[in-house]
Write a structure and sequence with these properties.
Belongs to the UPP synthase family. The protein has a single domain, classed as Decaprenyl diphosphate synthase-like (Undecaprenyl pyrophosphate synthetase). The protein contains nine helices and six strands; from the N terminus they run H-E-H-H-E-H-E-H-E-H-H-E-E-H-H. Strands 3-4-2-1-5-6 form a six-stranded parallel sheet, with helices on both faces.
């Protein structure tokens, strides 16, 4: 029985999605400006990438900047944009050397043209990498993603290439920003909050959720390994009973 149970437990997630929360609170606790927390968070990003790549996770999606984050103080937004730009330029070669492909999802229209150009450059530079996909969600919102997918399908119907009844959940999913990638198996949120904050709303329908009290800058190698170990202990049922899943594993 133990073998059967073990056989249906999750092992390594193909796709991990992370809401990197707690940078500001990490900095505040140390009497530092908020941007210091964001800078410290870059080290956590590197650590998590290393653990995921070692574990043979295929895709890592990081929620870097939501469509609601524009409401933050102008000085913080400006500092974040500057940090994002410098990180893209600094990390591009390292990602390419490590065979990591970088993708950026979200509405880029609000970003400065120079930052948009940097995004395109790093995507082109790393496009041939196939060991691991790092996906950054910037000016991204789950509601925006579903709306833009619906708009794409509406244009196809308007052009006569598609009938309304042809629109299925599977077809809409292909039009999402992550449409060519596996759905997230595991979603992690740091910082002690228990919500998904408009992140990958459609894609997280059956993802396993993991919440950590650690602020993002403190979420390093051991914390990521603990999250993966927790995931590996879970049984994913997708609406079925445990008995059905175990019977399927025996078949």
């Amino acid at each position: 029985m133990e073998k059967t149970k073990q056989a249906v437990l999750s092992s390594v997630p193909r796709h991990v999605a992370i809401i990197m929360d707690g940078n500001n609170r990490w900095a505040k606790k140390r009497f530092m400006p908020g941007v210091a927390g964001h800078k410290a968070g870059v080290d956590a990003v590197r650590a998590v990438i290393e653990v995921c790549a070692e574990a043979k996770v295929e895709v890592l999606t990081l929620f870097a900047f939501s469509s609601e984050n524009w409401q933050r103080p102008a000085a913080e937004v400006s500092a974040l944009m500057d940090l994002f730009f410098k990180a893209l330029r600094r990390e591009a070669r390292r990602l390419n050397d490590n065979n990591i492909s970088l993708r950026i999802i979200g509405d880029r229209s609000r970003f400065h043209p120079e930052l948009q150009a940097a995004m395109r450059e790093v995507e082109v530079l790393t496009a041939g990498s196939n060991r691991f996909i790092l996906q950054i969600a910037a000016n991204y919102g789950g509601q925006w993603d579903i709306a833009q997918a619906a708009q794409r399908l509406a244009r196809e119907v308007q052009a006569g290439h598609l009938r309304p009844e042809d629109i299925t959940p599977e077809l809409l999913q292909t039009c999402l920003a992550t449409g060519d990638l596996p759905l997230p198996d595991l979603c992690i949120r740091t910082g002690g909050e228990h919500r998904i904050s408009n992140f990958l709303l459609w894609q997280l329908a059956y993802a396993e959720l993991y919440f950590s009290d650690l602020f993002w800058p403190d979420f390093k190698h051991d914390a990521m390994r603990t999250a993966l170990a927790d995931y590996a202990s879970r049984q994913r049922r997708f609406g079925k009973t445990s008995e059905q899943v175990e019977a399927g594993a025996r078949a």
